[in-house]
Structure formats: structure tokens, C-alpha cells
Amino acid sequence: MSQTADLVVKDLCVAVEGKQILKGLSLEVRKGEVHALMGPNGSGKSTLANTLMGHPRYEVTGGDVLFKGRSILGLESDARSRLGLFLAFQYPVAIPGVTVSNFLRTALNARLAPRVAATDGSMPAKRGIAPKEFRALLREHMALLQMDESFALRYLNDGFSGGEKKRTEILQMAMLKPEIAIMDETDSGLDIDALRIVSGGVNALSGPNLGVLVITHYQRILDYIKPHFVHVMLDGRITLSGGPELALELESRGYDFVREGKEPATR
Amino acid sequence: MTASENPTGGIRDSYAEKYGFHDADQFVFKARKGLDAGIVQGISQMKGEPAWMLEFRLKALETFRRKPMPMWGGDLMQIDFDDIFYYVKPTEQEAKSWEDVPADMKRTFDRLGIPEAEQKFLSGVGAQYDSEVVYHKIKENLEKLGVLFLSTDHALRDHEELFRRYFGTVIPPTDNKFAALNSAVWSGGSFIYVPKGVRVDVPLQAYFRINTKDMGQFERTLIIVDEGAFVHYIEGCTAPTYSSDSLHSAVVEIVVKAGGRCRYTTIQNWSNNVYNLVTKRAAAYRDATMEWVDGNLGSKLTMKYPAIYLMEPGAHGEVLSIAFAGKGQHQDAGAKAVHVAPHTTSKIVSKSISKDGGRAGYRGLVKVAKGAVGCRSTVNCDALILDEASRSDTYPTMEIEEDQVSIGHEATVSKIGDEQLFYLTSRGVPKDEAAAMIVAGFIEPVVKELPMEYAVEMNRLIQLQMEGSVG
């Protein structure tokens, strides 16, 4: 694979409220690949996820992020999304009064139709996907995630259980068809059945057109989503990278062996 | 039609264009500015009213003079009662066909979409232009069932006995200074009577338009829903954008008899130079239901607290309201539920939004009288503040004189959260659209109670208000 990776993170340094969290992190993800990024609490995993998606609270103090060959650091999060980047949130927020269906249609339309700057507040006459087509698409993807149809009319993440929230994240990913998806601790708060369904959804979506970065604290989700590469993150940097076997090593020996700079037994 | 004199700038620019226009002065009679017994006598005489009404008016004028200005709510000190036209008569008589409405006025109402709405989804329409109703019509089938939908002046002329039995009984002129003012100079408004057991399934609507500069509009509405009957009445209002202020001070009285139900929906979109000081109250009797759905988007200052007096057991009242205050606006909105009888229930839901330095709030009263056991009331008031310059106030008052009751009150104040915005934008939705979406979601519990056409209109108005709001 000689061509530039679809997502290139180069020596990324990020501060939050003046505190340096990422200290020169580098990572490359290509479409078709599944990467797992593992690390203990406080190592900066969620900071990386939020920074890649363009959260305004995270200040990039050094390095660069290239997506499909161009730097995206100057882009707002909505533009990054429309370019094909996706973040499945660790804690999806509730948007009361906005239905899952209405939200997804708006999000889909934002990338399907050019936005017309209406001066009189009116909606452009033709805009994005037809309602009938949309409903069919939504139904199809909801079936994949074993979601009841009535779900579409519930308010987004409002009163959802942990499992319902995570399934909704994957539903959004399925509908928006990103090229690179970052999954931030998607396994947290899931029971085994929900984990199986969510992982099944991710697996159904992966393929040559999707690159996935699974951020996780535990190895558990990697029993369901098989990574090609595993990275270990400590104190704002990737300190160790390897194949799938590295995850198992971490599971049995903990993060301490990385911290102590020992070589993994499998190498 | 000329453009507005003084567009307010900022968020309501498009208001000036869509609603803020005005016709050239057009009237068959315009009283001189200012208020005295002579003006009141003139109004009554011109309308050919019975002596008791003139007496009622003059007495109310005395009450108005006697009562001090309220020192709470909004700033009323800028109102100069001597600099207002209290009566501007637009036409000789009200028309039953749009063809008979003078061209300028018809064009105005066309532009506001009223005749179109009448054809598509209404049972009847009234249109008031300055002081008088210029058009009024109800579908024939309802007329045959005995439903009355008239201008209030017309009702006084043709149905004096019925009129007199209820007029001023729910809101006496002594209730407050502005109710007294309205009682003295009232003109226009709607009168509705729905006979026993008759259900008016398709809404009736009245549209109120101020055209004249420095004008005071004082319509008076009286609705009587007889036993087991139902009606949904909708009112809308707009005015030209003038540099000087106008006054709108209405009184709305409603009586819902046993087993009846009335829903009263307001979409208030006055221009930002209108003082909107309105008294609205309903009396609900045994097993009757009264619902106020109140959307306040316009005006400079609104002080309005739709009230329900629950007079007999089984009566139920609801007030669902939205208040949106932008730059230079103060929405002092709210609700009152007065449980006079035992086993009555009420529900108040208030949603207020403030932005660009606007001030919106909830001022409410829940009162349970001694002996009114088994009452239930819930109050939910939520405020959404869109920026640091804006303000929200909550003044809930509870006067509970009985122990065996269930009263719930919840209030939240929130800002559009960065996390909510980030979540929506991370799915590709542009920031301003995301903010509008959050606001639309916030008011959804009230908007979903509106008929579809009005829900669409409400969301569109909110979108207009939200344009360019998030950097």
C-alpha cells in the first residue's frame, strides 16, 4: 500500500483548557482496515476522537490531520462529516423533540443536496432524498440492527438505554456511509447481547470502502470486531503497535508491561 | 404598498418584508388622538350602541383612570396614552365576501394568506383591520346548526340578550388597568356561540391587523361553548414596522359549559413596536375542558397570562405556551390556573427562548381554593437561552389553600449546549441549522398541538428568528 492513507495523523499535539493531552501522536488508517486503539483511562483516547471530528474545545497545538490527502484542521465538524469522517460517540447526547427519523433525514440531506442560502427562510424547492425512499432506507438499516420501527419516531437519544444509544450511533453510521469511522468506546455500557448486535452492525458495514478505528479500554469488543492492527496509547502517544495478538497480550498482562517498556512476549 | 419605515435590523429584517408593510392611510373615520369621555361617547354613538353599553364604557374609563400602572412585568412607562388613536374605522360595514373588501385591505389579507387559508382548512374567518372587522364569514352548514361566528359589534346588535348575559362576566373592567381600558374603548373582535352538542371540527380563525401608525387596537372576544359542544378558534396577528409604538390591548372571555371543550390557539407575531397587553380568561364548568395554546413571537413587550377558572368538579384546563424574545423584545408570558372547585385538573407547559439580548419568561399562578380537594396541577416551564446577552425569568406563584391536592412544578433553564451542537454538526448538519433544530425540538411538545398548517408556520417563523444566529 504505497498510496497515502485515507486518514493520516501526524505528530498531533492537542491541549484542552491549557493542558497538553496529546503529545505527538501519529497514526494512519486506510479504507478496508480495522484498527484498534487501546489504552488505559486518561491516556488521551477520547481526546483523539473528538479532535479528529473537530470539537471546538480541543486545541491543536502541533502536527496535522490529513483526510483524503488534505488537512482538515481548518474545517468545522460538519464539513469533516460531509467529507466522509464519522465519530460514534462514547456518550451520545439527547436532543429532545427531534426524532431519530427527522434528524437522520436532515443529516442525509445535508450531504446529498447543496445547501441553498435562502434569504427568505424558505426551504429550497428540491432538497435531498425523497421521503418514501428515505423511509425504505431507514427501515432496511434498522432491521440490520434489530431495531423496532417505532424507534424512528422517538426523540434522539432521549431516555434511551445505553444499548439503544449505541445502536443508534451505528444506525447513523450505516445511513451516512462514511469512509473512515471512529468508534469511541462503543463497547462501554453494553451488555453482551447489545455488544453482539452493535458489533454485528459494524462488521456488516466494514469492507473495502470503510476504514474503522475502534477506540477501547477493553479487549472484549475485539472478540467481535477483528482488528488488523492494534495500537497501544499511553500518555498522549502511541507507544506500541502490532497485530491482533497484541490485544490478547494486553488482556492477560495489563497495560503495565507497555508502561514499563517491556517487549511483548509475542514479539 | 410602501416598504417599512424603519426596519428594526438584525433578525427581524425579513419581518419587515413579509409582514411589516403598510397600506396608505385609509379610513372612513378616525377619532382624534387621546382618551376622554368624549372619545368614548363618540365610539359608542358611531356604533349605535344601547345605552347600557355606553354606561359600561364610561364606568370602565373611570376605572382605567383610577387604576395605577402595573409596576411589575415589563416597562410600561414609554406608553403615552395621549398619543394614541383609539378608534380608526376602516370601512362603512363588514363584508361577507372578499370581493366587497376595499382593494388595499384585500391585498393585505391576500398577502398574509388569509383567503387562501379560509378555502383550504377553516370553517370560518374574521379579519379585523385597525378598529373594525372588515370581513366575516362562516360556512353555511355551521350557520344552519346555530353556530354564531360574528364580529363582537355585530353580535351586540343582533343578539343583545345572549351577549349581555355573558359580556364582562369573566373579566370585569375592574380586573386590571388594561382590561378597564379595553372595556372603555373596545371595538371589533370575535363573538362565538356553539349550541349544545354541536362540534365544530374544523377551526375558526380571526386575523388581526394594525395598519395605522400610533394606533391602539382593542378588540374584544367572547366565546360561549354550550354543553357538550366543541370549538377550536385560532387567532393570528401582525402589524407594520413603524418607528413609533402601537398598543394592542385585547380582552378575551370564554365560557365553557358542562362537558364542553374549547381550544384557543394564538400565533402572535406583532411587529417589534407593538405593546401587547392582553387579558385572557376562561371559566370551565363541570367536566369541561379549556385549552390555551399560545405562541408569542412578536411585539416589543407582551404581558399575557391566559387563565382558566375551574368552576365545577371534573373541569380540566391546559395552557401550552411558547415565548420567543429576540433583540429588543420582552415576552412576559405565562398562565393562571385557579381551582375553585374540587376534583379539577390543570396542566401548564411553558417554553421560552431568548436570544440577541431578548428577555423571555414565565409568570404563572396556580391557586387552589379552600375546600377544592382532590385537585391536580402540573407546571413545567423550560427556558432556553441562546447567548450570554439574553435573559430568562421564572416567576411561579402557588397559592394552595387545601392539603389534599397534588401539585407538581418543574422548571429548567438551559443553554444550547456545545455538546448538542457538536453532536449534530458531526453528522454534517451546518451549525445554524443544528441550532434551529435544537430550538425546534425544544418547542416540539407545544408545536405538535397545533394544526399541521400552523405547526409548519410556527417552525418557519422560528427558523426566520434563528437565521444567522450562531456564528
Q: Keywords for this structure?
A:
heterodimer, A: alpha/beta, Rossmann fold, 2 domains, 6-stranded mixed beta sheet, 4-stranded antiparallel beta sheet, globular, B: alpha/beta, 10-stranded mixed beta sheet
Report on the structure:
The complex is a heterodimer of chains A (267) and B (471). With 267 residues, chain A is of the alpha/beta class. Chain A is built from 8 helices and 10 strands. Chain A folds into 2 domains: 7-92 and 161-259, Rossmann fold (3-Layer(aba) Sandwich), CATH 3.40.50; 97-159, no CATH class. Helix content of chain A is 32%, strand content 24%. In chain A, the strands form 2 sheets. A 6-stranded mixed β-sheet of chain A has the order 6-7-8-3-9-10, with helices on both faces. A 4-stranded antiparallel β-sheet of chain A has the order 2-1-4-5. The radius of gyration of chain A is 19 Å and the shape is globular. The mean pLDDT of chain A is 89. Chain B folds into 2 domains: 10-304, no CATH class; 419-471, no CATH class. Chain B is built from 12 helices and 24 strands. The two termini of chain B are 35 Å apart. The A-B interface holds A 53-57, 76-78, 80-82, 86-87, 89, 92-93, 95-98, 103, 106-107, 110-111, 115, 119-122, 155, 172, 176 and B 14, 17-18, 417-420, 422-431, 433-434, 437-438, 440-445, 460, 463-464, 467.
